[in-house]
Amino acid sequence: MAENTMKVYQKWEDMSEYMYICLKSYPKSERFTLAADTSKTLWRIGVNITRANSIGNAKKEEKRRSIEAADYALVELKVLVRMGMKLKFLSIKKYEIMSGLITEVGKMIGGWLKTF
């Protein structure tokens, strides 16, 4: 199980790296609003993945809550990224790549949730 959770974390890390590069292209007026919200949501996902990974099997309910929190934050991230694309802060190509990365992480988190 630990190997799979590390894969989720690694995939999240890859997604974060790409997204931070893309967030730099947002206009200066959006750096403290939409870009900041996107960044905070991205971090919340990582924090919850890390928390769920570090909680032992004895605290299954707490672990499940952390995984669910990561899943909810991922839904928020989808909305924020879509808004960035609609406002033309992201190109269609960058949006497609981001959406693919979000979907991959979402599938991994969904699979992790099914183990409970």
Description:
By secondary structure, the chain is an all-alpha fold. The protein has a single domain, classed as 23S rRNA-intervening sequence (de novo design (two linked rop proteins)), CATH 1.20.1440.60. The protein is 80% helix and 0% strand. It is built from 4 helices and no strands. The protein has helices at 2-23, 34-54, 60-86, 92-114. The longest helix has 27 residues, at 60-86. It starts with a helix and ends with a helix.
Figure out the total of helices.
4
Structurally, how many domains make up the residues?
1
CATH homology superfamily name: 23S rRNA-intervening sequence
Largest sheet: none
How many DSSP-defined strands?
0
For the CA atoms, what is the radius of gyration?
15 Å
The helix/strand series, from N terminus to C terminus, equals: HHHH
CATH class: Mainly Alpha
CATH fold field value: de novo design (two linked rop proteins)
Q: Which stretches are poorly predicted, pLDDT < 50 over at least 5 residues?
A: none
The CATH architecture can be named as Up-down Bundle
Helical coverage, percent range: over 70%
Taking the alpha carbons of the first and last residues, their distance comes to 12 Å
